Each structure stands twice: as C-alpha cells, then as structure tokens.
Amino acid sequence: MTDTLVAFDDVLASYDPALGLEVHVELNTNTKMFCGCPAVFGGEPNTQVCPTCLGLPGAMPVVNAKAIESAIRIGLALNCEIAEWCRFARKNYFYPDMPKNFQTSQYDEPIAFEGFMDVDVDGETFRVEIERAHMEEDTGKSLHVGGATGRIHGADHSLVDYNRAGIPLIEIVTKPITGAGEKAPAVARAYVSQLRDLIVALGVSEARMDQGNLRADVNLSLAPKGAGTLGTRTETKNVNSFRSVERAVRYEMQRHAGILDDGGSILQETRHWHEDTGITTSGREKSDAEDYRYFPEPDLVPVAPSREWVEELRGTLPENPLLKRARLQADWGYTDLEMRDVIAAGVVGLIEETVAAGASPQAARKWWLSELGRRANDAGVDITELGVSPAQVAAVQALVDAGTVNDKLARQVFDGLIAGEGTPEEIVAARGLAVVSDDGALGAAVDAAIAANPDVADKIRDGKVAAAGALIGAVMKEMKGQADAGRVRELILEKLQ
Amino acid sequence: MSGWIRKTASEMADALAAGEVTSVELTQAHLDRIAAVDTPTDRRGVHAFLHVDAEGALAQAAESDARRSAGSPLSALDGVPIAVKDVLATEGLPTTCGSKILEGWIPPYDATVVARLKAAGLPILGKTNMDEFAMGSSTEHSAYGATHNPWDLDRIPGGSGGGSAAAVAAFEAPLAIGTDTGGSIRQPGAVTGTVGVKPTYGGVSRYGLVALANSLDQAGPVTRTVLDSALLHEVIGGHDPMDSTSIDQPLPDLVAAAKQGAAGDLSGVRVGVIKELSGDGWQPGVITRFQESVDLLVKAGAEVVEVSCPHFVHAMAAYYLILPAEASSNLAKFDAMRYGLRVWPEGKPDASAEEVMRATRDAGFGDEVKRRIILGTYALSSGYYDAYYGQAQKVRTLISRDFEAAFEQADVLVSPTAPTTAFKLGEKLDDPIAMYLNDLATIPANLAGVPGISVPSGLAEEDGLPAGFQILAPALADDRCYRVGAALEAALLEQWGGPLLDQAPALNGADA
Fold it and tell me: Alpha-carbon distance B95 to B90, whole Å?
C-alpha cells in the first residue's frame, strides 16, 4: 500500500503542524548506568557484561554518579529546573534484548524539567519548550539472522548482544511545538542540530548520530488550520541524521494530510523511517493496550542533588549557543550572509572544530560549505556522515598552505579521505598528489615551455606579462597539474625579465 | 563425633579455637547427619536441603583447619559450617529459589552474604529448601517437595525459609541463612523452636538475594541460640556498596548486647505489648506461652506497657499489594532467554521468542507464583495503580508512624511470632488467605523496615509444638532485639532445664 502524499504547500493551506521531539543521548561515561562495566562502543558481543547488566537473578543496580552529573548539566544547559528529589522507576515490558524485562528509567519524577532552547532558523529565533530530561538505561541490541532485510520478520533466529545494555541515556522530550508552520521541518532539524552542538560543547557524549549516540524520535500531528487543537500523532523512531529529521517531518506532514484529506483518521502508532527511500512505514501499534506498569525502582535510593552541587555544575556550562554564534561570527569575520549560510548548512560546529585544528575561518568555510556540502548533498547523506573530520579538513588546508597541494589536488585528497585511504599525508603520498616544488624539475619544465613557445616568450620579454598564462598552462600540463601555479609564474618571469 | 552437632555454634567455635575438634570433623558430622535424616530413602525425612555440597564444604573446612594451625583464623566462626537458603546466589552451586524455572542454573557470582560467609571461613554445607521464590509460609510451595518439621514430620516447618529452620532444628547445621520478606525467617523459627532474626532493612546486603519484594526482603541469621544469631549477624551485616539500599553505618555491637541480655538484667528496659497482635484467632497455647514470657521479662527487671498500633490491621492488605507488585516485575526476567529452564511450545518448532517465554513461564512457575504475578500485574496497571499500589504505600507510611509512636512508649515491642504452632502439611494449601494469616504478626516489621527476632517461648499445651516470641526494635537498634531475646532465652533455659530442642522427638531412630 502506498501512502497518498499531499504537496507540502497544500498541507500548510489546510493544517497546522505540531512537532514533538524525543532525543536520546548516549552519555560518554566510562562505565554503565548501574554497574561497573565499560560503556564503550564496539567490543566483541557480550564481553562488556556483568550480573547486573545481564539481569542475573539477585544482581542489583548502583547509580553512576557521573551520569547524574551529566544529566544535571544537560538539564541546566536546557534552562531546566533540576529536581531536588527524584527517583528511578521500572518500565515493565517483555523483550529479549531487555535483560530484566523492565527498563530502569524515570517516569513522573525526571531529574530535569520545564526548560527551553532557543533555536535559530534562517536568522529567526524559535523557542522550543523542553518538558523534561530524564535518565534511563539502554537496552541490548538484537541481531536478526537469516532474513533478507535484517528485520525480525523473515529472520530464522535472533542473536542478542548485551554490551549496550545499561549504557546511560538521557532522554530529552520537548513540549508540543506549534506555530512553526512551513518551518516545522526546518525547526525540527535546527533543534536537533543545535541540541547536538550543545551536547558536544558539554562534553557529555560523542553525540554521533551515525553511531546511535544521538537518536531522535519525531512526533508529528496535524490539526485543522487555525483550530488551535492537537491532532493524533505518530512517532517516527530512530531518525539518524539532521537531514532525515527534516525529511521525516516533511514526509509525515504530507502523509497525514493525505489521510485527513480523504476523511480518514490518523492511527496513533510508531513509524519506521527508511533512510534510502525517504518514507515511513507502520511499526508496532502504540495503543492504550500498552501499559508499562511504572512504579518506583525499589532497589535504588532517591537521587537528591544538593543545591550547592547544582550551582557548582551550572558554573561548568559552556556558553549559550546563540550568543556563541554571535561571538564566532565576530571572531571569524563572516558577513551576516556567510554566517546564515553556515548555520543553515549545520556546519557551525564543524567549522569551529576545523578552526580550532588550525585552519583559517575562510578556508574552513570554503571546504565545509562548498566542497563537502556539495558532496554530502550528492551522496544524500548528512555532512557529518561523509567520513571527513574537522581535523582532517584542517590537515588538508595545511597542505594547501604549505604548497604541498593546490585546491584542485586537495579535492582529490578528499576523495581519498571519503574512500578511507588514510590520513591526508598518506593519501597525498599514495596517490602521488604533491605539487612539484622542486625548482630543478619545475625549472626544466619552464625552460622546455619557453623553448617550445618562442613567440610567447618574446611577448613577455617585451613586458606583456599577461601572456605568461599560456606558458603557465603549458608547464602545468607538463607537470600533470601537480605544480604550484604561482611558483611557475614566478619562475617564468624570473627567466624572461 | 555426632555429639558435636548438638552444640551451639559458639560452643563449636570455642572448641575449634581450643583445638578440641577440627572443622573437617564438624563439617563431616553435619554431612553425616544430613545423610541420615534429610532425605532417607526408606522413610520420611526432613528434606531441608535442595543441594548438599559435601565436597566443597569439606574442602573449605580443610582450609579452615589449615588457617587455624597457622594461627590465622578469619573470624570467630571460622570453621563452623552453615547452610544457605536457596534464594542467595552461590558461585558454582545451583540456585533454584525452589522453582523449576531456575532448574540447572549455576550462578557465576556470590551474593554479598555468601561472599562474607566465605571471607569469614564458614564452610557452606548446601542450599536449603524454600517456598518457590519465597512465596509461602509452609515450604509446601517448593517445586522440589515440602520440607518437614523435625518436631513432627507430618507438619510444616514454616516458610518460606522452612529449609533453613528445619536444618538447624534437626541438627543438620548449626547455623543457616534465611531471608525474611513478611516473616520467612521468624515464623519458621517460631514453629521449629529455633531463633530467627530479621535485621533492620538495609542492615544486611541484598546483593545476590534473588528478590521477592525488594522493599521488604532482608537476609538474616537462623540459629539455635540468640548469641549464635548475634555472631552470625556480625559476619553478614554492614554496609555493601553493591546494594544502594544498604545502610552506610556501623552495626551496633550485637554480640555484646546478647551477652548483656544473657546476664539477665533488663532494668530500665520498657517492653511494649502490641494490643492488636493477640486475641481472637490466636491459639490459646501460643498466647499462654507468650504471656509467661512477658512475665519472665518483668522478673528480669523490664517495665511492661501495652501499646496500640491501630493500622496493623491493614498491614496484611497493604503487604499483599506491595509484595505481588514488586514480585511481578522481579520475576519478569525469568523468560528462558538467558538462563534457567527453556520450554518449547509443543508442536511448534518455529516458535517465536514470545511463545517460548510464554510456554516456559507457564511450565516453570507454580500456582502460588502465578497467583501473585497476576495480582501484582493488576495492582500496577494503569488506572488501578493509585487505588492499589499507591494506597498500599500510604498504609505503609501509617504503619511506620504506628511504630514511631509505639517506640516513644517502649524500647522494644513484643508479640507472639505466629498465631499458631505448626499446622499439618496440606492443611492450608487450598486456602491462600488462611496461609497468609500466618504472617499477621511478622509483616508490620517488614513494611516499616524495623528489626525483629523470634525466640522459642516453649511448647503450646494443646499440641506440644513450639511457639515463638517476637521482639521488635526501632530501625538500627537491632542490639535491643538481642539483649531482650537473650534475657528471655536465659530465663526459659533455666525453666526448661536445657534447650527446648532437647524435648523434640528423635528423628525415626536416627538420633545418636
């Protein structure tokens, strides 16, 4: 069954969208939420486990203090109130990747609540209200074997890896975001992107969406235009890039409108996002039948952070993202237009890291915005998933600055980086990309060009310097592009003047 | 050698220290006793043990003897053997919780209590029988068959820790570990004529104790004397960073309190008799022994006052909401995915994980466990939570306030431990409510987290079976239970002219 999609502008003519975002942030604590097992990505299956995170009979949880600290810092950075006293609760449901068949989470007593984040969309500030940020543990990971799709349907058996079970998560839940209208998809993207910048600035998570450190669930509903009500929502799970967040919101708006226009009603359900086709499909139904039977976790004592500690943590917060952007614009000397472009492209953090790694602001902007932005767009992936890091961009620029490669060759270095061929230096060596800076070799090529083009040489001798271009072209051709054109020009002029 | 088994643990410890006996000899004597009376093939046995680890116990005993020879025993009880309720995880030893669903599971780790026993040098004889997942007051709900009361093998030994109490009463072990969620240490102690202690909640680590109801469970000593309980309590008690609910405070000096009490002077101690825990429905012989015991405390110098705990009447109802609620969630982990029993649904070779979970839980859990899972699931359901679980928690607060008020008038509170002596096997099996009523007097302490001890108060006249005397103290004041308990024990021993268990019948010719 294919869904009927309504054109985006037509959706907005009839409906007001309401957004809700639930973002799971995997913390980068050394150990898991409730035990001493290492909380690191990767590792042979079921090697980072103990009686507690395996849910063995009798084992008990102990709260990771560092995770509480990270949760409080996230809450403070989101302008939340921090609970003076809160508890963990058990969320009861059966699933093989949940060792205890309940998830230790927080329910009606979150560690942080009632906050907001100001989000910048095309130069306009949009306030997203935060309902809560709460702590919970991650589940294990199921691997469905034998099917064509890797999904549970069609698989002949499943394997479970509990290494991830018990890794600390913070779930950040917004209040319904209304009034965004046509900007709803952009607001959703900007919120997740800015939230990621904040998490990175806090240093509490690797916050890599491609590795699942940051996972977004997108809730969307439509209400008749101007009604001021909230419609029935769907929850699209695990949307794993900024770009996908925007696409998923747009898609669900169009799909909801198709159903509503036909006089149908929206089923409250979980949807799966398909990155490849850009559509959502129905997941398990989330209805009243799902009753998690929450109750306070009796194996843990309440968390009661002292006000002194909370204030101490407030002192460790990074600067406000919007103020920071203004500062960065001034530091970088970008025009308003340049700054807006880099914000829209979601590369502020990348540029910042690239500059920190030694590149000039203009060079960093050039690479991220034009070269890498274009490549991400062509590949249909988020720019963070290209496989090029800020440090690598800075390293490439350093090679340009040193005259080792020129801009054209640098693009080939990026080809190599994306193909995973090693460091920029290794790629330059392996692909033979270095410009010839040896004056002897260059000099020979210049001499040959002069000999082959006596007419042009004469013009230059007569002072017609502009004619040098033809000789430079000849030399560059001879050097297969691996020469610094500026140096070639210098050598030609030296020899002919 | 068999004379040794009738000694108290502290006498055994003294004999070991004096070089009069070795740990291997003591351990072997108990293993012989177990072989003789526990599960004989030709007649009914006590059936206190689910698993006996003769090899392991003797090896630990040999190590203890070696330490002793080297002059470096680990503790006062180094070398004295012990039995452990099968609800505590023991590395390398089966741990079933009396349930089929854990059949064959060998824990890869030790419960903190077990680790402390090992660190103190006590050889572990084996694992004792219990009602399945500690749900019951008779040990009849064990999936591996009931334990029988050494006083009368046709009667129940109490529960859920009937195995530990019966093992100690039958001289199969001088010491045992029990766990008490609503009376599972104290009520078996009462009906077998032994001593049982439920420490202050958080006083003994629950790490590795397979939870029945986390907010109520507490492990504690099962022994034949008050002093032995104090010695054992000091080995297993104290803060454990692996249990967040464990109290980070030093234990009071329990052995000193027991010795002080045994000296017989209770002057200045105010004893509160709980009005609500006697009267209609209480066996007259139990009440008689209780009152005589109160008189003995007065004789020792205590001042007796009557106190009222008006909300205790609601304790049973609150308990049977909180316990099943927590248990329903705790028992969810038994799903055939990672350990224990796995049952494939019949005729379904391609069954899904969910179908395997369902078939396993259907086959692996007994009726009482299923009953409580259903009760608890219902009590936590959305729309019912406030009316049931929420309301029960409020009752719990009121019961705690009853205790606070009562402890303003008295240093300790007393009652009979259980309303009756041991009933016949099968007698209450079809009447869960009648079974639940056994724990009427013991449940309030679990709801409030306060410590309690049960000491034998004599034999009820009408059936010649043991009755128990319960002493409750404020949280963290476990020492008061020991002081008053030891004083009563000393007075009664004088009256009886020796231990009450000397009056128990011989176990079908097996007694030496």
Answer: 7
